[in-house]
Structure prediction request, 320 residues.
Amino acid sequence: MATVIDTIGGQRPRHPEKQSRPDTPVLRKPEWLRVRAPGSAGYNATRDIVKTHGLVTVCEEAACPNIGECWSQSHATMMIMGEICTRACAFCNVATGKPNPLDPTEPARVADAVAKMGLKHVVITSVDRDDLSDGGAAHFAAVVHAIRAAAPGTTVEILTPDFLRKAPSAAEIVIDSKPDVFNHNLETVPRLYLSIRPGARYYHSLRLLERVKERDPNQFTKSGLMVGLGEAKEEVMQVMDDMRSAGVDFLTIGQYLQPTRKHAAVDRFVTPDEFKAYEEIARAKGFLMVSASPLTRSSHHAGEDFARLKAARLAKDAAA
Prediction:
């Protein structure tokens, strides 16, 4: 691990690849973004299961502000394929470098933890693995299949990489594993990709979501945006339109929070009223489910939201 560069909100950055970046200013968080420190009995129980099974969670690696709430309710988002990413996105707290080889025992360990935690709904995400010929697609599918076998009553939501520059069959392997929700985040508006998500391509990510619907129309698709990075309201609305054109069912919008001074700076803190307005606009554009608030994250309340998503589809089908 690298020497600590800086700390914001108690987080310990571990990013040797970001040490050369200039420091960025840090804005003081408003009251609506302050959360209680974790430490309940439920939180400790979830932490123990995660550690016993040698698992990595995005809750820890991405310094999620909702970790106390989620872990206290036995909700954890598993991060597979290691804890080192091949990309260096300016917003992300996950370390960048050369990843280790895939662990063939990981699918079984993840599935066993899901069963022991008694999860009704689980979210599986990963680092980007540009070093692998299929971007880790077969490993993703193996995890989904293992969970189906160990916990058949658990619904599975995946939050995938973009499989950029991989054969089309890579994404198809993951789609064909039949997750209940296929999530891939666009993260920000196209204009900001070069500075915020330089290793990705906006229209490739959009096309990935569209391909899910083409291959399996019944599979729910989901995508998310961070705001507060300097985007304009009109740009957010255009991304909503792009998502709807790609058939995306579920949209999440949350406040970007700066992990360290070596990451992209927060341009501003979007107010709760503005988030409410975004939610109303998104619903009017036809999304089946929308979650928009300062602390919204892709996997926050994912189980409850999935139940609402299914109900919304049933209602839409009945009205058709």
Residues 34-319 form a domain with the TIM Barrel fold (CATH 3.20.20.70). The longest strand covers residues 220-227.
